[in-house]
């Protein structure tokens, strides 16, 4: 299996930049390929540049399989893009330098539709104060959850889901007693211990998203990070999966679109304003651009 792109599993970086592009008209595929090659060359050992493709651009590149644009029956904003760039760095200066170079190279052929600069908050916590991504599998199980297996034609790559969430109710959330905040998430705040089945509220976030389906754990690899300033703040959600359908299933459980009809209580305090999914190909595929 070809090697996955750098940076997916390395959680040591503290600064993050996400750029979502749309493909305009009148550009040749070869010109786009050339711009992609130049953008990839910006990557350094401590500034990995991940590249993932929306269904429209992937189809233009003619790679033999397709996938649908993001949709969840109108329940979640669908803003499907054509190209996702994720740059990570150890410091803001390195992130800015790499991001500016990548944007200048790609802006000749694509239109920037979203830019989010994000950061690691304390010890990997969301702005809610709760540790983010504690349900991530570890070791080889992380790769099993995130990397597409054979014999799928996309094997070695990964499906990616991104959403910009705005924490519109963060002030109200912080007014709740800590025990009630923990009921929203389904785990403790201080030390991130998941509730057992008896204590887990039916509408807790963990209870809605850390589940099995037909006996198969619906694990994904989360790398979300907070973003914002004093007037708008939230979470840029980014996750990797071996199956595109896992994202759809977990979002349906959050929005009460499954048989039990239970809605994730976390949605009372935060809302997504964008939604796209992507295919992140292997390093070997990118090297052959």
Describe it for me?
- The protein has 289 residues and is of the alpha+beta class.
- Helices cover 26% and strands 23% of the residues.
- The chain contains 9 helices and 12 strands.
- It has helices at 29-40, 55-60, 92-106, 140-146, 170-175, 178-185, 205-209, 244-254, 283-287; strands at 15-23, 49-53, 83-89, 110-119, 158-166, 212-213, 216-217, 221-222, 225-228, 233-241, 271-272, 276-280.
- The strands form 3 sheets. Strands 5, 8, 9, 10, 11 and 12 form a 6-stranded antiparallel sheet that branches. It has a 4-stranded antiparallel sheet with strand order 2-3-1-4.
- The chain starts with 14 loop residues before the first strand and ends with a helix.
Indicate how many domains the architecture comprises: 1
Helical fraction: 25-40%
Distance between the termini: 18 Å
Low-confidence stretches: none
Helix/strand/pairing category? alpha+beta
Number of strands: 12
Tell me the overall shape. Answer: globular
Domain Dyp-type peroxidase C-terminal: 125-282
GO molecular function: peroxidase activity
Pfam families: Dyp_perox_C, Dyp_perox_N
Cofactor: heme b
Compact description:
This protein is α+β, with helices and mostly antiparallel strands. The chain is about 25% helix and about 25% strand. InterPro entries: Dimeric_a/b-barrel, Dyp_perox_C, Dyp_perox_N, Dyp_peroxidase.
């Amino acid at each position: 299996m070809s090697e996955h792109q750098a940076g997916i599993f390395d959680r040591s970086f503290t600064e993050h930049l996400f750029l979502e592009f749309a493909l305009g008209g009148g550009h040749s595929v070869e010109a786009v390929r050339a711009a992609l090659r130049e953008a990839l060359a910006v990557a350094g050992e401590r500034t990995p540049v991940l590249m993932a493709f929306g269904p429209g651009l992937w189809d233009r590149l003619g790679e033999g399989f397709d996938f649908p644009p993001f949709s969840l029956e109108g329940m979640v904003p669908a803003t499907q893009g054509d190209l996702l760039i994720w740059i990570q760095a150890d410091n803001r200066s390195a992130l800015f330098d790499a991001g500016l170079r990548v944007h200048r190279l790609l802006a000749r052929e694509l239109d920037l539709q979203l830019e989010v600069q994000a950061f690691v908050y304390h010890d990997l916590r969301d702005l809610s104060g709760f540790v983010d991504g504690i349900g991530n599998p570890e070791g080889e199980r992380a790769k099993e959850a995130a990397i597409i297996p054979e014999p799928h034609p996309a094997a070695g790559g990964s499906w990616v889901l991104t959403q910009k969430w705005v924490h519109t109710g963060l002030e109200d959330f912080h007014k709740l007693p800590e025990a009630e905040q923990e009921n929203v998430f389904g785990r403790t705040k201080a030390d991130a211990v998941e509730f057992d089945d008896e204590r887990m509220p039916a509408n807790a976030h963990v209870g809605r998203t850390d589940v099995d389906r037909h006996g198969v754990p619906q694990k994904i690899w989360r790398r979300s990070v907070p973003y914002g300033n004093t007037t708008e703040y939230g979470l840029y959600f980014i996750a990797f999966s071996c199956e595109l359908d896992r994202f759809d299933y977990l979002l349906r459980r959050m929005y009460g679109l499954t048989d039990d009809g239970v809605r994730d209580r976390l949605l009372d305090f935060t809302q997504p304003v964008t939604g796209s999914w992507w295919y992140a190909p292997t390093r070997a595929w990118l090297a052959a651009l």
